[in-house]
Amino acid sequence: MTTPVPFSDARPRIVAADAAGVAAACERLIAGELVGLPTETVYGLAADANNAEAVNKIFAAKGRPADHPLIVHVASAQAARTWTRVWSDAAEKLARAFWPGPMTLIVKRASHVLDAVTGGQDTVGLRVPSHPVAQALLTSFAQRSTSPHAGLAAPSANQFGHVSPTTAQHVIDEFPSTALLVLDGGACDVGIESTIVDVSGEVVRVLRPGRIRVTDIERVLGVALASDAADAADAPRVSGSLASHYAPRTSTQMIDERRLRMQLRAFRAAHDRGPTRCIITHSFDVETTEKLHAVRLAADAHTWEFELYALLRKLDSQRYGELIIEAPPQGPEWDAVNDRVRRATQRDSEQ
Ligand code: TXA
Ligand code: MG
Q: Looking at CB atoms within 10 Å, which of 84, 93, 180, 328 has the fewest?
């Protein structure tokens, strides 16, 4: 028997992801409590997906509207199939190619799936993460659970609308007064959320771009996917598709290289009047001054995915008057980065 980690106060704490830590997290989940779960994409805020009360704690902690569906995480594709009533050819191909890994499949729900998880929709999002700590926890949770279809509901472990966490400390920073055990799985390898692919209808659609590119999916399915799918009127609800999602708290703009260089000249000509700014670029070095700081990230999509959220968090805490991000390059490799930067910079338009 493992002794549960005592939680006498409403505080989060980080626990090493060794066998004892995973066992303690498992006990917490069985008891209907929340756990900070490392995955290869971002950290999740996990609860027993078959326990409505536990799932409701996720919504309460995040301040997330109750009709926004959650992703169910399981250890294998075989386990995932117990959560759906239709396993299509496309689902099978994508699961074989990309699971375990940073991809979520939207499928028709099985009858046992709680409304609290799906937001009342007829579909459910399923994901098999590859992170070894997530795998260990999902496996031991499935062994301990009395349910024939064990799974963990887990959205990204951030306050609703804020930047997703990519370290255990970020999770603590998001939930300073929640009784929460956070397993420390290190910095997430990918750094942005999973690619969401809707395979519940006739047409396969990418609802959220991620590390698994549209071109990777097209190659596996052997068909071209429709573009701007997420804008389709009948597309299922994805809270990540609100324009204001993934926003830092500091006012943040995206500007293309040419206009950015002009702006920088204007800032200097004005002798740096105005707020202290930080500029994030990929194509050139910014000459810094006392009120003009800069970070240059390598012009490589993986680097941007890995760094973006952690960097926005860090800069947010430094209380700049304004952040400016050089518009990333275009093309399939950069779709996910462009998507997240666009959302991070559109907070004022659609909140
Ligand atoms: O990488 C990830 O996907 C992370 C890690 C923790 O697995 N999770 C994550 O969860 O990003 P969340 O809740 O922050 O974003 C999942 C998105 C939400 O925008 C939700 O609306 C959408 O997936 N979603 C979940 N179930 C859905 C469904 N049945 N139909 C359409 N969208 C769905
Ligand atoms: Mg999220």
A: 93
